[in-house]
Design brief:
Elements lengths: L2 H23 L2 H21 L7 E7 L4 H7 L7 E6 L3 H9 L5 E5 L3 H6 L7 E4 L4 H26 L4 H6 L17 H32 L2 H5 L5 H32 L7 H25 L3 H17 L12 H7 L3 H15 L3 H30 L1
Parallel strand pairs: 1-2, 1-3
Antiparallel strand pairs: 3-4
Helix pairs in contact: 1-10, 2-8, 2-10, 8-10, 8-11, 8-12, 8-14, 10-11, 11-14, 11-15, 14-15
């Protein structure tokens, strides 16, 4: 290919890209949706979802009415628990749990204090509504810690040990060091996670919608018989939508995530945008495939929703790969969001560079080449 042919090729790409951008600008509803996803949606995900236990409603069945039982029940307090008072029997407790009015019930047995004073083991019952598994698991964990601390403190008092005595005893200290998010701010994880989800959805939907719009208007056949190749028809759709998505990512990062949630970006913003551009290219290949089997925007939307769920579940954002069955771990290797998640959190929160993320970058590049070429092949086969 000589110099003139190369210039002509790129001139056509630029002209088609500008055409796609103009068409997008003329669609105010779609522009409003894009702005919403990159601003309000990311903000609500970061500020409205809390993965920690806060003010979980708990009630107590106190069958002992002793000083020890009162001390234990009043340890279930804010910020983790919201003590709602006492109830008289198990039937009432089951009714409240069934109706979802409380999250848990602490059942303290009779002779609780006397058995403790005699050095006997005493079991207390903690009934939890685990219809919400996350809250139920958190409540159980906090309750276990509270009762363990109570038992240790009670034994110390019974033996007459004060702070000075405890200071000279041999003790194993559990000193935890939390890296990258020491205060465990949910907003950091949730806002980034939602941003990556938005990028995934729009990277598939926008190029597919642009291509299907040509079908609905009857202009796709005109493009197919023009001097443009299949690549020159489809690549501008990907480039134009990628530019829009990258602009949205910049708005989301610099106007929402960093200033509102005080996210300390440890790595290179430039590297993150480079990885994002590669990911948009990869996901756009899936969008182009969707466009070849869809006849309307409604079908595009339904197929994007259908594909989004397995992509999200296999991304590793909600379930670590180590906790998945072996078959699911193998399936994760074909989920582009898995590699994008790994690299995004590593860059933004850990300050990782290419030397650390090169394997994920390579995997994403391979998937991008496969998905995009498959989409172009499908288009060429359909309209070639």
């Amino acid at each position: 290919m000589n110099g003139e042919a190369i210039l002509l090729w790129w001139d056509r790409i630029i002209a088609m890209t500008l055409k796609e951008l103009k068409q997008l600008i003329r669609d105010p509803v779609l522009l409003l949706i894009i702005v919403y996803f990159f601003t309000a949606d990311v903000y609500m995900a970061g500020s409205g979802i809390n993965l920690n236990l806060r003010n979980a409603s708990v009630m107590v069945i106190d069958n002992d009415h002793s000083a020890a039982s009162r001390e234990l029940m009043y340890r279930f307090r804010s910020p983790y628990f919201d003590f709602k008072g006492e109830i008289s029997n198990k039937k009432e407790a089951e009714d409240l749990l069934d109706k979802g009015k409380i999250l848990a019930v602490l059942d303290i047995p009779e002779n609780f204090q006397s058995h403790l004073l005699q050095g006997q083991h005493v079991a207390v019952q903690f009934q939890v509504d685990t219809s919400n598994t996350v809250l139920g698991t958190l409540a159980t964990g906090y309750a276990t810690q509270i009762t363990a601390d109570f038992g240790q403190d009670f034994v110390s008092k019974r033996l007459g040990l004060n702070v000075e005595h405890l200071a000279v005893l041999p003790v194993i200290q559990n000193r935890q060091r939390v890296l990258y998010n020491p205060n465990q701010v949910d907003g950091w994880f949730m806002s980034i996670s939602e941003l990556l989800t938005v990028i995934t959805m729009l990277s598939m939907m926008l190029p597919a919608a642009a291509a299907v719009r040509e079908k609905e208007r009857g202009t796709i056949e005109q493009l197919a018989v023009s001097p443009l190749s299949s690549l020159q028809i489809l690549l501008p759709k990907v480039i134009s939508m990628a530019l829009v998505i990258l602009l949205g990512v910049a708005v989301s990062l610099f106007l929402i995530i960093i200033p509102v949630f005080a996210l300390p970006v440890k790595g290179s913003i430039g590297l993150f945008f480079m990885v994002t551009a590669l990911y948009v290219f990869t996901a756009s290949g899936i969008g182009l495939f969707i466009a070849t089997i869809s006849r309307s925007l409604a079908q595009v939307t339904m197929l994007v929703i259908l594909l989004m769920m397995p992509i999200l579940l296999l991304s590793g954002a909600w379930t670590p790969p180590e906790a998945m069955p072996q078959a699911m771990r193998w399936a994760m290797t074909v989920s582009p969001l898995y590699y994008f998640n790994e690299m995004s959190y590593a860059i933004l929160l850990k300050g990782a560079g290419i030397k650390i993320i090169w394997d994920s970058l390579l995997g994403l590049a391979v998937l991008g080449g496969v998905f995009f070429n498959f989409g172009v092949w499908r288009f060429r086969r359909q309209f070639g």
